[in-house]
Amino acid sequence: MAINKELLKGSTVIMILTMLSEQEMYGYEIIKEMERKSNGVFIFKEGTLYPILHGLETEDWVTSYWQTHDSRKRKYYRITKSGQALLQEKVKEWNLFRNAVDGVLGEGHA
């Protein structure tokens, strides 16, 4: 089943920041890891991911640097302190939202 893009739109930032809080990654690595961790549900295209990363960088929530690995130059992203603070805020917001939706749907109740 495909996920509605509108549902995905509101959760991409928290997922990307969470992954970057675990380790620094380059763009394609983020795409593949997102796909792996979601069991193939979330498949980002480069044209979707990079504008989000650039926006996060503009807001100083992530920073980037270039590194050469196996003769390939890659742009790595890392979360900043302000990005960590935003992530904590987004996790609280997500938990509130998820619990409210579960309550309306009758999920999580015996």
Q: State the helicity in percent bands.
A: 55-70%
Structural shape = globular
Number of helical segments with 4 or more residues:
5
Radius of gyration over all CA atoms, rounded = 16 Å
Overall mean pLDDT score?
91
Instruction: Find the count of extended strands (DSSP E, 2+ residues).
Output: 3
The percent range for strand residues is 15-25%
Q: Give me the secondary-structure category.
A: alpha+beta
Largest beta sheet, briefly? 3 strands, antiparallel
H and E string: HHEHHEEH
Q: What gap, in angstroms, lies between the N and C termini?
A: 27 Å
Low-confidence stretches are none
- The largest sheet has its strands arranged as 1-3-2
Give a structural overview.
Residues 16-89 form the Transcription regulator PadR N-terminal domain. The chain is of the alpha+beta class. It has helices spanning 5-9, 12-22, 27-37, 46-58, 81-105; strands at residues 25-26, 62-69, 72-79. The two termini are 27 Å apart.
Q: What does the secondary structure layout of this molecule look like, with pairings?
A:
Blueprint: H1 5-9, H2 12-22, E1 25-26, H3 27-37, H4 46-58, E2 62-69, E3 72-79, H5 81-105
Antiparallel strand pairs: 1-3, 2-3
Please give a quick description of this structure.
The protein is of the alpha+beta class and 110 residues long. The protein is built from 5 helices and 3 strands.
